[in-house]
């Protein structure tokens, strides 16, 4: 009986979370998919092309950056494969896209948790721009032309608004379906872990890591979900954690900052392998950035709180 209750409760939470996030993912995916067949993205590419030199990139590198941020990593990688770029340029693009891909969907979904949109955009774009500038200044090699692996590309041109609309609806529906396939089972598993007392054990096991990052133990499941499944899917766990585990605004923001740098860290790193770049440094950059940035923000936030209390004590 207890197992059936756990399943029922987990299923209910999973469906509610899918509905909450699906209401964001479906329309944004549809709109962006339609925009892909309009001059809008071309205008944006034309606008940012002159800025590419700041990051050590040639002008046409704006194409994968825009597609990767407006669509997803696969669109960005597909665009890279059409360009003759150096290893250094491809590596810089990979680092930038690992920090700020699928920007509209993932950022809007994450904002549903309660994190302000400007913070989300500032962190994601800031990390992408800063990392590119640093790599360009520090790395003196990588001048050889990148040798891409064998990847089949399907660039079917759609004509007419009906096929474009149908394609957009299909992509939006698939996006919500993928969300449901991951989030619903995940919520059921989490519910069983809670009812069996395993979640407390997991949180204690993760305690040294969460403490190092300046967070409490109840953020452990959020971190694990984001690291494994990604920012958008991890947002589902975040929403539930806020409701049930009383995760504080501070811990929520710290968890987000950490996950921005290295969400879905295995998958998002491995898909860059066919580009012929060293992926181990890419993985290390993401992990080190995530840990260092989170610890710094946690320290500053803690210090500011302490200073405010100290100031209030002096006033009295």
Describe the structure.
It contains 14 helices and no strands. The chain has helices spanning 2-35, 40-48, 62-70, 73-80, 87-99, 103-111, 117-138, 161-195, 198-212, 220-229, 231-244, 249-262, 265-270, 279-315. It has 316 residues and is mainly α. α1 packs across α6, α1 (2-35) packs across α11 and α10 (220-229) packs antiparallel against α11. Helix content is 74%, strand content 0%.
- Largest β sheet strand count, sense and barrel closure: none
Please report the distance between the alpha carbons of the first and last residues.
Answer: 57 Å
Structural class assignment: mainly alpha
The whole-angstrom Rg is: 21 Å
Could you list the spans in which at least 5 consecutive residues all have pLDDT below 50?
A: 150-154, 306-316
Helix content: over 70%
Mean pLDDT over the residues: 80
Shape: globular
User: Total domains, how many?
Assistant: 1
Count of separate DSSP helical elements: 14
Order of SSEs, N→C? HHHHHHHHHHHHHH
Strand elements, count:
0
Which strand-content bin applies to the residues?
A: under 5%
Features:
0% strand; 316 residues; disordered C terminus; mainly alpha; 74% helix
Short description:
This protein is an all-alpha fold and 316 residues long.
Chart the SSEs and their pairings:
Blueprint: H1 2-35, H2 40-48, H3 62-70, H4 73-80, H5 87-99, H6 103-111, H7 117-138, H8 161-195, H9 198-212, H10 220-229, H11 231-244, H12 249-262, H13 265-270, H14 279-315
